[in-house]
Amino acid sequence: MIQVVLPAHLRTLARVDGDVKLEVQGEATQRSVLDALETKYPMLQGAIRDHVTQQRRPYIRFFACSEDLSHQSPDAPLPDQVVAGTEPFFIVGAIAGG
User: Fold this and answer.
1) Residues 23-63: tens digit of each pLDDT
2) How many domains does the chain have?
3) What φ, ψ does residue 24 adopt, rounded to 5°?
4) What is the CATH number of the domain that holds 16?
5) Using an 8 Å Cβ cutoff, are 48 and 56 in contact?
6) What span, in angstroms and rounded, lies between the C-alpha atoms of 40 and 34?
7) Which pLDDT score, from 0 to 100, does residue 96 have?
8) In a domain, 43, yes or no
């Protein structure tokens, strides 16, 4: 099981309290985790990735094992600790401004 930590606004949209646990079929990648998340919580479709391009939305970032994975290929394997369920996969809403 992969543990996913969502920001508050996405937890509210998905109507969940706390972290989400997902079964991912095949290799665990950003794409497969997001596919499983959107399948289990269809109201999140389009909130994290663009509907058409499937690219990460601006101001959404991905982290795991103290690393920013946001600019890695969506098909790159996630760290072993995330796959083993000992470390979470974080989806973070970034903030900008001045």
Assistant:
1) 998 999 999 999 999 999 999 999 999 989 999 999 999 99
2) 1
3) -115, 130
4) 3.10.20.30
5) yes
6) 10
7) 75
8) yes
Q: How far apart are CA 4 and CA 56, in angstroms?
A: 16
Residue 76 has pLDDT above 70, yes or no: yes
Write out the two tokens for 24.
Answer: 């991912």
- Name residue 19's amino acid: D
DSSP reduced 3-state for 87: coil
On the CB side of 16, CA atoms within 13 Å amount to 18
- C-alpha separations of 12 from 51, 56, 59, 91, 92 in Å: 20, 20, 18, 14, 14
In a domain, 98, yes or no: no
Contact 19, 5 (CB under 8 A): yes
Please answer whether residues 62 and 70 qualify as being in contact, where contact means their C-beta atoms are separated by less than 8 angstroms.
yes
Backbone angles phi, psi at 32, to 5 degrees: -70, -35
